[in-house]
Structures are given as structure tokens and as C-alpha cells.
Specification:
The complex is a heterodimer of chains A (275) and B (401). Chain A has 275 residues and is an alpha/beta fold. Chain A has one domain: HUPs (Rossmann fold, 3-Layer(aba) Sandwich), CATH 3.40.50. Chain A is built from eight helices and eight strands. Chain A is globular and about 60 Å long. Chain B has two domains: 319 residues, Alkaline Phosphatase, subunit A; 59 residues, no CATH class. In chain B, helix 5 packs across helix 7. The radius of gyration of chain B is 20 Å and the shape is globular. Classes of the chains: A alpha/beta (275), B alpha/beta (401). At the A-B interface, helix 8 of A face helix 4 and helix 6 of B.
Amino acid sequence: MNEEVKKRNPELIEKSKQVVREAFEKYDPDKCAITWTGGKDSTTNLWIIRQVCLEENIDLPQVITIDEGDAFPEITDFLVTISKKWHIDLKWLCNFNVLKCCQSHLGNDIQVKDLDERNQAELKRIEFEFESFPFEAESYAGNHLMKTVVLNKFIEESNTELLFMALRRDEQVARKEDEYFTHHEAGYLMPEHTRVSPILHFTERDIWENIKLHNIPYCPLYKLGYRSLGARTASNPGEVGIPAWEQDLENTPERAGRRQDKEKAMERLRKLGYM
Amino acid sequence: MKNVIFLTIDALRKDVLGCYGNKDELTPFIDSLQDKCIKFTNAQSTGPYTQASFPGILTSSYYLEYGRQKKCSPKRTLISEVLKKSGITTAAFHSNPYLCDYFGWNRGWDIFYDSMQDEVSDTVPYIKGDGINHKVDQWLSSYIKNDNYRPFFLWTHYMDIHEPYIPAREYLDKVDPSIDLSEDEMLILFKGIILKRDISNQEIVKLLKKLYDAEVRETDDYVKEFFKILEKYGVLKDSVIIITADHGDEFGEHNSLSHDGKMYSELINSPLLIYSNNRTSVKVYDKLVSHIDISPTIIYLFGLEPLKEFKGHSLLPLENYPQKGIFGEAIGKTSSHEKETDKPIYFYQEDDLKIIYREDDQSWEMYDLNRDPQELNNLINTSAKSEDMKKKLIPQINRWQ
């Protein structure tokens, strides 16, 4: 690890910690929740928040993870192991109604009419107009039901006011709101809440340098070449066999291995009238 | 060596530009450039929609060259790949989902921004021109400070004119202040009229054209802002700028809306300008040219050897440009989406004569664009030239057999 990293890293962490402290000044930790996927970003994020809690003697807010029904076993194992190690009472969230409708089987068709009222209303909200769709966590309808809806329901039922996220600025090239805190107004089926991303200023490289410097645990899939972990069937390694941190992070896309790109393209084409 | 900047505008009809004769003042800035331009008055796209036209533009090859594929075939050579290999920096900024990373258009670019990682609005699913300009500004601001500054090839594409037509109020006022439509109402027109290709109400079609015109007016401002950015970083004087559209848009001219698989002028006749700061008066070039010639022209501007993979011919120097017939092909889709069962459509043009073959119903059409610019009078059964023209198109149709 070179000198520059050793100098830069504490500044990055201090900035994140400031954001976390500010969050706890504004919001009761009981009204906060931390999202954790088991990926490198959200694990780093959780590690930082946990440090602040230990330093300031604050109870760690509720940590949640979403089971999309298509998780890598390596990720699930990682979440279980680290929860134990860090004494975290992890809450697993899942849209069981959707899983029931496809017998938890990937690729099985889900008939919209078989879904419960809330899920049907949610599909209407995103103007999904088909009668059925195959169960895939990162398809247009699947992504919405398995992630967005689950998260919204949790926020609503637990009266969460602040959600800790692990977005990074360099991942979202032209983010207009370049702010750590973003407020989400209430809307139809959407509860009002605020999101905060303490590691917004970290780059992919910073994340890895920080993980190495502080021995933060990471899922072994990154060692096999995965750069970004989503649903199992929708993620592919960047370069097979080359650990993520040894790849050309600056000049190749982090999420190229994720099928979400295809889904996003399809979704936009649909909105342009092409589907 | 100069930089080459390539600006493409989605769905921009040639006949809305003032410099091509429109009197509605929709493009004051682009019109003001023409004194420093070579203006091509007879340039054709290789196809009537993005997937069919961009292979011609960026790979100098035709749409069906490598079979029907949704993705850009690895067998195609992108202009960016050629330039990058020659040590020229290549940068792309656009927001057209059909040209994104997933569809394989990211090859050969040092910088490739396709906006797919960014959030877009629910109603208008692309980054608007100001957002694209912002990306270009950010990139140039760091690029010009680079110690090993090299000439660059910059491609920028604006989506703003593409439906849904939801122009900002400010621009709608410039076109017709009496139009009183909310964004929701414009979206209803998109879903209820454009997507259904419903031209039964002429008044509504006229209204849609006005919304479209307002988007054109808006885009002209983005082009203006783009040139300001180039000037700010001092690159305008050292650059040749090529401006064109990938295809046009239809407002009932041939019984439909938007841009489907047809080969009429409202869809394939493109504006084409080559801007150079040291030119002092407009040079009008009225011979027939094609988008297939754009990539070879860029190769020429960078002083590189012509590429045998490219089907076109450099437009420059003008005196060496051969007079030739031009060709294009697409899938003859009749709605916004290409269906597996839709069959190809082809055209071939020589001077003012254009012949079209639609495989679906094996129909032929031929038009004299000089006498019948609206392409309403099919000459295929009456013209003495029909057989000769068919003979020229048939080898293209049968080229894989």
C-alpha cells in the first residue's frame, strides 16, 4: 500500500463518519435502518457506521438485507458469518407472495392475477401491462417487486425515517443530486423517508484500498473476478480469475457483468414505445 | 492534425432546418453556422430508424450485412476502433438505448458515456441535451489539461427530438403560444396517438408536428451551447464538425407517424453539414451522398488510409467524390417494434430516381424525386427506367444467396 493511499484513506473515512454523525444528530437511531447486500460497498458502509456507533456509544440501527430469491450462496454465507462476527441482528426481507406464485423457481412464469393485491397495485403503478412475467430478480417487474416494493413496505411498517445506503458517486456518472442526504417525498405506495449514502465520495478503487488497509471482510466471489454482485443469474465476472481489485478499475465498467444493463436498456426502449 | 467532432441528432428531419429552406426559424443557431459549412442537400440515411441507420453511420456497413441481429455484430468495424488503433482519442456521449453498451456500440471508445447508469425521468427516458453537454464539458475540461494531448474524435448524439414529444414550455411558446397542453396530456398523445400510429385526425397530427417543431427549437439551443463549450476550451478553431441526423420522422406523409420501416424522404433524407472554422462562405454540394460515406470521411480527415471494410467513400475532397448510386435497407416494420415476422425493405437511388422493394408483399415502387418530391406517384409500371433500376437493386437483395 503506497504512502498516498495511507494519507488519503483516513480523510475518506473521516468524511464518511461526519456524514454518519450528522445523520444521528438529525435522526433517532431507532428510526434508522442500514441496507446491506453483502457486496463490497454496503459492507464498507456498514463497517464505517458500526465504527461510529462504537465510538459514540450508539446502538447500531436495524440492519436489513433483501432476499431477491436468486442470491449467490456465497453471499448468503457471507451475510450469516459476518452477522455473527459483528453481532448484528440481521433482518431478512423478502416478497414471499411472489416466490409463492412461482414456486420459488427461477424462470417460472408468474401470472399477475395470482399475485396479492399490493403486488398487483405495484405493477399497475409502474405501468406493467402484461398478464404474466418470468420470475427473474433483475427483470423489469421482478426487480420492482423483489427489491423496491420490499424496501418500501419495510420503511412503511417499521416507520423508518432514514435509510443508510451505499451509493457511490463514481458509479452514477451524471448524478444530478450530488448530496449525501436525499429526501424522498411520499407518493402512492411510497412512504416518505430520507436516504443517506456516507460512502458517496469513495471510488471503486478507494473501496478496495480501504478493505485491504483495514482487513474488512469481503465475499470470496470478488476474488474470482466479479466486480459487482447482483442477483446470481444476472451477474458475471469482469475478468474471470482476476481478483476485482487487480482489474483495470478506472478504464473498464464495474457493472459490465450485470445483466441489469440489459434490463435498463429494455426499460428505456419500452418507454420510448419500442417494446 | 485537426480534431473531428461528430454531432448526430436523433429523428431530425431535414426540412425543419432553416438552412434547408424552412421559414419557421426553428434552428437559428444551426442556420448561422452555414457560412462555414459544406452543405449537402442530397444526403440519405442507410435506414429509417436508429438500428438501421447507425451501422451505416459509425461502421460504414449496411443493417442486414451480417444477418438480423439486435446487437452490433462483432464483424462490423466501428470508426472508433480504427481511430483508437491509430492513436486518436475517442470519446462518445449519448443517451440512445439502442446504441448502449449492451447492444455493443461501446467498442473502440476511450470514453463511452451511454447514460445507462444514470437516472432518467419516467416520462422522457433519456438524458436531455443539456445533460449530454454537461458530460462533454466535464470531459473536455480535463482532457485539454492532459500533458499528452492528442487530437480527438468526439461523437455526441442528442435524443431530444425523439418522441414522446414533450417540449419545454419556453420552446412551445416560440412555436405556438396558443398550445395549452400539460406534460401529462402530451404523454397521452404519445401513447394514444403516436404509438397507435393513428392519423385519423388531421388536426391532432398537426398538433404533434408543432410539438415536434418545439423540440427541434429546443435542440438548436443545445447545439448552440455545445459550440460554446467547444469555444470555451479553445478546440472549435482546431476542429472539423460534421452534423447530421440518423433519420427523420413522419407526420402522416405516408399514412403513419414516427419512423417505421419505410424508405421515403421524410425518413431517410438527412441534413448533412461539414463545418470548418476557416471556411468563409457556404459551399453547397447537391449531388447524391449517403451516411455510408461519413466514416470514410472521418478517416480521411485524420489523414488515415481508406479502409477496405468500409463500404462508403470519403466525401472529401469533394472533387474526388464519385457519382454513384446509393443503397439502404431495413426491416419493413409497421409499428415501433421490429417483429420476427417483419421482412426486409430495400432502396436504391441514382440521381433523382429512387426504387424501393418491400419483401413482405414483394412490391416495387419507383419515384422521380425531382418531379414528385412527396413520393406519391409510383412509376414502377410506367417508367422505361424501371427494369434498369430493378437490375441495380436486385443484386443487393440477393447478395447472400
